[in-house]
Design brief:
Largest sheet of chain B: 6 strands, antiparallel
Number of helices of chain B: 3
Helix content of chain A: 40-55%
Strand content of chain A: 25-35%
Structural class of chain B: alpha+beta
Shape of chain A: rod-shaped
Oligomer: heterodimer
Radius of gyration of chain B: 22 Å
Number of helices of chain A: 2
Largest sheet of chain A: 3 strands, antiparallel
Radius of gyration of chain A: 43 Å
Structural class of chain A: alpha+beta
Largest interface: A-B, 35 and 26 residues
Shape of chain B: elongated
Strand order of the largest sheet of chain A: 1-5-4
Distance between the termini of chain B: 41 Å
Order of helices and strands of chain A: HEHEEEE
């Protein structure tokens, strides 16, 4: 009887100790799980933040690309066409090119002739800008093949008060920069 | 009516007429036309025609050009001596532009013609300089 009581007490004590240990193990696992969860959440937040940063960087890159494209565009290429207002003037600047003929008697003559050709080219450019160009095209197709493709352009205008700004002559090519200031009253009928 | 100090007014008028007529020794009207052709970026042909007007021109002198005159009333000589200056001046007057360009099978050729239509110019030859102005 004595031994039975002792065995029961021992058993209960051991069971009690075992329960405590299991409880302790359970608590530890829970803590680790919570910690892992927190870490996962933090990683998720960091990933979201990185994603946002990447989007912003992408947008900035796109803006930089647009700015670069605008900067490298030629001066004449304006997206919005400039319109001559009634009480305002418009300044137009062009560059004409001309070459000297092969059979000139002196460099001075070559320069004079090339300059004349360059001035005519600059006048043509002014007329094209102010009045516009007429364009005609014609394609000849025979047996499903293009035999001849022709484009004809023509400009007719009257130009007054055009000024030569700068003239350069280099390696047989003469470049003349010309400008003209036009106002609304110039076109009044 | 005779003035109190004799013919002073009359003599003043006469003097001023003589003075002005001596300043404008050789005034005349000239017809000038200018045309040049550029083909494929090279000057092809240039013509400047000058002739004395046979009939009086109408209009007011516009933009003037003053040239140094060492010739005795010969406009052609004067212009050939100052050709650069005169042609630059002509470019600022009304100039007609006619441009035609043709591209066949990607090969391009073009002709540009610049023309100043026949215009009447008033030319005053003085002792050392000449004044040229178009009449409009």
């Amino acid at each position: 009887m004595k031994y039975t009581m002792l065995l029961v007490a021992l058993l209960s004590a051991s069971s009690l100790f075992g329960a405590n240990q299991v409880q302790t193990v359970d608590t530890k696992a829970n803590t680790e799980l919570a910690q892992a969860k927190a870490e996962a959440a933090q990683a998720k937040a960091e990933a979201a933040q990185a994603k946002t940063e990447a989007t912003i960087a992408k947008e900035q890159l796109a803006q930089a690309d647009i700015a670069l494209e605008n900067a490298t565009k030629p001066a004449g290429a304006i997206d919005v066409e400039e319109v001559l207002q009634e009480n305002a003037t418009m300044h137009i600047s062009v560059t004409g090119q001309g070459v000297a003929p092969m059979n000139t008697s002196s460099p001075a003559q070559a320069y004079a002739l090339a300059k004349r050709a360059a001035i005519a080219d600059a006048y043509r450019a002014i007329a094209e800008k102010v009045k516009g160009v007429r364009i005609d095209g014609q394609d000849l197709i025979k047996n499903m093949m293009v035999k001849r493709s022709t484009i004809r352009t023509s400009v007719k205008a009257m130009v007054r008060n055009a000024n030569i700004v700068e003239t350069t002559f280099k390696e047989g090519l003469c470049e003349v920069e010309m400008e003209i200031v036009i106002s609304h009253s110039d076109f009044a009928q | 009516m005779r003035s109190r100090d004799g013919n002073r007014n009359f003599s003043l008028r006469l003097c001023s007429v003589i003075l002005f007529s001596s300043l404008a020794l050789n005034a005349g009207e000239y017809l000038i036309s200018y045309r040049y052709v550029v083909k494929n970026a090279t000057l092809f042909n240039e013509k400047l025609h000058i002739s004395k007007a046979m009939k009086p021109c109408s209009g007011e002198p516009q933009r003037e050009l003053i040239l140094e005159n060492s010739t005795d009333g010969n406009l052609k000589k004067l212009i050939s001596q100052n050709s650069d200056e005169f042609l630059e001046y002509i470019h600022k007057l009304d100039l007609h532009v006619q441009h035609e360009e043709q591209t066949t099978n990607l090969q391009n050729k073009f002709t540009t013609i610049l023309t100043m239509k026949t215009t009447c110019f008033k030319v005053d030859f003085n002792d050392n300089f000449a004044i040229i102005a178009p009449l409009k």
